[in-house]
Amino acid sequence: MSLGDLERGAPVPSATAEVTLRLNAVVVAVHDSTPRLLTVPHRDRLPALPYGLLHDDDRTFTRALRRSVGEQTGLELGYIEQLYTFGDVGREPGETARALSVAYLALVRDAPTQHEARWIDWYDLLPWEDWRDGRPALIDDELIPRLRAWAATDPVEKGRRSERISIVFGLDPAWDNIRVLDRYELLWEADVVSEAVRDRGDASAVTATDDRWQGRPLALDHRRIAATALGRLRGKLTYRPVVFELLPPTFTLRTLQNVVEALSGVSLHTQNFRRLVERGGFVEGTGEIDVQTGGRPAELFRFRPEVLRERPRPGLGISWRS
Asked: At CA 17, angle to CA 59 and CA 198, rounded to 5?
């Protein structure tokens, strides 16, 4: 049992307690320059990540996940990978059984959805993670003062807490884009995000209209799952060419850069980025021109799958420290 469980005052199930198993999907797409997550309605009136249960005829978890997401959203998943298993006590209010969720990261090309599924901006959930226009003012205006006030409430822990704040929010050393989950966990521990208050017993604390600096909440612990996925994806960009799963078969280098910037949350120098992509052998020209760019016509490129055999870790090699 974790410290977080103790702080929540959650009941401790016995060794023979019933366990429920769900599958959750963090389905990611990029529309123009907006990184988006797919959500479905939940009984507590907040958006939730798509979820499902195993059926008797589901031979694998991934088959069950694809089926469930298709039924709820109308989308057919392509690239998926297992993300993490979430099973803290108290994940669901009033639970009588231990609720486990096996979460998956799924990358899709932007597409319309069916039923009541909706795309939402990833940075509406985690606004402090979007540095494309520089360090967000809300970090220093809203988050850091609250975190420091929390650190000061415990004289014994003040030094350790202050050091965590400094490291994960880029005060010293520099901001590390991959520490997404560390930042969310710290904000939760300090009661800065409303889910923390809910998890400690006040269900009325979470609404769909939280202050902008807190970010938009999701049902249950799904914002924690989303933070885990963003950190994983940012890290994966440095050693695997997964970004091309989000692109159409042919694309301009400007479109590719927009997608990388959307996921990493930082702006990149255009010429440096293009030299890195071309020298790394990630793409090849098609000889065709995109005349719908709104400016000078641009050449269309496609991904070179051969790069997967040419290097063991064919990532973009971009530093995410700002």
From this structure: 95
